């Protein structure tokens, strides 16, 4: 792809975990691949009193650690020329004058303000940027998730940001949309005629979306305990994946055409009554166990977690979409920390043949499409084939499209694509306000019912696939989670 126009990218929260672990390494890769024009600048911003040299030294240490073999001293030296630091307390209007002095050298440039801070700072940041004359026609603001804690708080943030930036200048990031296989799902569905006739209730028995992590809450205990898996993963990543699976064909790949269709799916999600929250959702919390063969503590023993915390580290949900295409097809969503493997995948289970002349048992979902985002990027189509020999015995085989093997070019990390899309002004892979609020509207009854319940989350041993209730959620429909590693 052609290099982007020269830009200034201002990373609020520039000393934080996300910037050091994900954003700077992503920008380093784009620099190395020649995607940034001469003169593009990346400015870290935070309250700490650092010189640009201090900042660059810290950034180098972290990037060397996170980039591993991809880190190259000479590339770093040229990348570092783009880096700078400005001390800004987002809540202190006076500090924005210093930022303005730095940015106003190039008034007409594209400016990307990336807010990688707590959302409680977004309003003050935008207001102070505007009052300092820093919001120009060429400015964009990228908002990290989670945006708010519930519908009301997300609306309040959106209203506040919307006072200073037009909706088409607001880039709500969901890094799952930047993952290559997710975009490949769009290609599979809308670039091939093959699947469209099958992609509906008549042929699809159930859909399963799993995002399982092996890690625990790591150093983010305080944040996580106030958030939980439903807000951290389901309200955004899992629902966005569900939208890509379930949406109608958009009229084009333009941002609003795609986002309109995703919105319709979110609005068609069947809302839960309090009673249905009990029967159709499972929340879990990990107890001590093992990860990658080593003992690990339970959630309640993690740093910064209150001993009586009821925060869920695991969620499973049976969702349904009230449309002609999907009525009656269960969409099972599952995510958790400290699970057996790190795996992110979408599984489409097709219905059985109406009558098996080979005597195959019914209900086994022999035809299955598995789209893997992690650990590897692949798409597998499971079919039945005759096993070699004189007898007519069938066995399950799969056609495997391994993207890494098929396309030898380097895989872009999600943040690489999304950061450059923000510079290019491409909104397709970012979430529009109405989508985000529709997602909050759907999860809120679950949050409310859990908060009102006296039940604790079901515990599960770290290193397993979650509480037994998660399997029961599917077995009640005669189904089981796809768990092939
Ligand atoms: N880390 C991750 O993996 C992910 C994070 N996110 C989201 O990204 C955001 C940032 O997360 P993360 O990097 O982990 O957070 P950290 O706590 O590691 O970093 C917070 C950053 O904000 C800065 N900051 C705090 N207060 C102010 C202020 N008043 N003015 C200016 N800067 C300030 C801090 O620097 P200083 O103290 O020097 O001011 C620091 O650079 C959060 O909203 C989080 O939910 C989303 C997905 C994943
Ligand atoms: O947004 C988040 O995502 C990560 C998981 O992302 P992945 O790309 O590594 O699958 C999760 O660990 C984190 O809690 C959450 O905030």
TrEMBL record:
This is Glucose-6-phosphate 1-dehydrogenase. It holds the Pfam family G6PD_C. NCBIfam families: PRK12853.1-3, zwf. Keywords: Carbohydrate metabolism, Glucose metabolism, NADP, Oxidoreductase. Pathway: Carbohydrate degradation; pentose phosphate pathway; D-ribulose 5-phosphate from D-glucose 6-phosphate (oxidative stage): step 1/3. Catalyzes the oxidation of glucose 6-phosphate to 6-phosphogluconolactone. Residues 10-184 form the Glucose-6-phosphate dehydrogenase NAD-binding domain. NADP(+) binds at residues 47, 145. GO terms for molecular function: glucose-6-phosphate dehydrogenase activity; NADP binding. PANTHER family: GLUCOSE-6-PHOSPHATE 1-DEHYDROGENASE (PTHR23429:SF0), GLUCOSE-6-PHOSPHATE 1-DEHYDROGENASE G6PD (PTHR23429). One of its GO terms (cellular component) is cytosol.
């Amino acid at each position: 792809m052609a290099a982007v126009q020269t830009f200034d990218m201002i990373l609020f929260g520039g000393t934080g975990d996300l910037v050091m672990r994900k954003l700077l390494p992503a920008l380093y890769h784009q620099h190395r691949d020649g995607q940034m024009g001469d003169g593009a600048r990346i400015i870290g911003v935070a309250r700490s009193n650092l010189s640009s040299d201090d900042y660059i030294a810290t950034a180098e240490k972290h990037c060397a650690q996170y980039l591993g073999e991809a880190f190259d001293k000479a590339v770093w030296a040229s990348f570092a020329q783009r880096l700078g630091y400005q001390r800004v307390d987002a809540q202190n209007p006076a500090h924005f004058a210093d930022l303005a002095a730095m940015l106003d050298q190039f008034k007409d440039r594209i400016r990307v303000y990336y807010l990688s801070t707590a959302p409680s700072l977004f309003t003050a940041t935008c207001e102070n940027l505007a009052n300092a004359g820093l919001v120009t026609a060429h400015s964009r603001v990228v908002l990290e998730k989670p945006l708010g804690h519930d519908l009301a708080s997300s609306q309040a943030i959106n209203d506040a940001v919307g006072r200073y930036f037009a909706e088409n200048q607001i880039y709500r990031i969901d890094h799952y949309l930047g993952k290559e296989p997710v975009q490949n799902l769009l290609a599979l569905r809308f670039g091939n005629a093959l699947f469209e006739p099958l992609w509906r209730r008549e042929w699809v028995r159930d859909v399963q979306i799993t995002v399982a992590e092996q890690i625990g809450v790591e150093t983010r205990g305080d944040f996580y305990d106030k958030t939980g898996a439903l807000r951290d993963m389901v309200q955004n990543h899992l629902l966005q994946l569900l939208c890509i699976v379930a949406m109608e064909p958009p009229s084009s790949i333009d941002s609003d055409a795609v986002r309109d269709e995703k919105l319709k799916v979110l609005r068609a999600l069947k809302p839960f009554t309090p009673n249905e929250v009990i029967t159709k959702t499972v929340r879990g919390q990990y107890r001590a166990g093992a990860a990658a063969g080593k003992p690990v503590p339970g959630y309640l023993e993690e740093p910064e977690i209150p001993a009586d915390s009821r925060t869920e580290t695991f969620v499973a949900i049976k969702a349904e979409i009230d449309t002609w295409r999907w009525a009656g097809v269960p969409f099972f969503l599952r995510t958790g920390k400290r699970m057996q493997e790190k795996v992110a995948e979408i599984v489409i289970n097709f219905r059985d043949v109406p009558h098996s002349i080979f005597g195959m048992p019914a209900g086994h979902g022999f035809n299955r499409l598995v789209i893997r985002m992690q650990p590897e990027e692949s798409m597998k189509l499971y079919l039945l084939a005759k096993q070699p020999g004189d007898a007519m015995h069938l066995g399950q085989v799969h056609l495997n499209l391994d993207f890494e093997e098929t396309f030898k070019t380097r895989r872009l990390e999600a943040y690489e694509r999304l950061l450059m899309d923000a510079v290019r002004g491409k909104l397709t892979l970012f979430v529009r306000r109405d989508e985000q609020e529709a997602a909050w509207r759907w999860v809120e009854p679950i949050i409310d019912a859990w908060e009102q319940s006296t039940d604790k989350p079901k515990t599960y041993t770290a290193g397993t696939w979650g509480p037994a209730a998660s399997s029961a959620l599917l077995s009640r429909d005669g189904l089981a989670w796809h768990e092939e590693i």
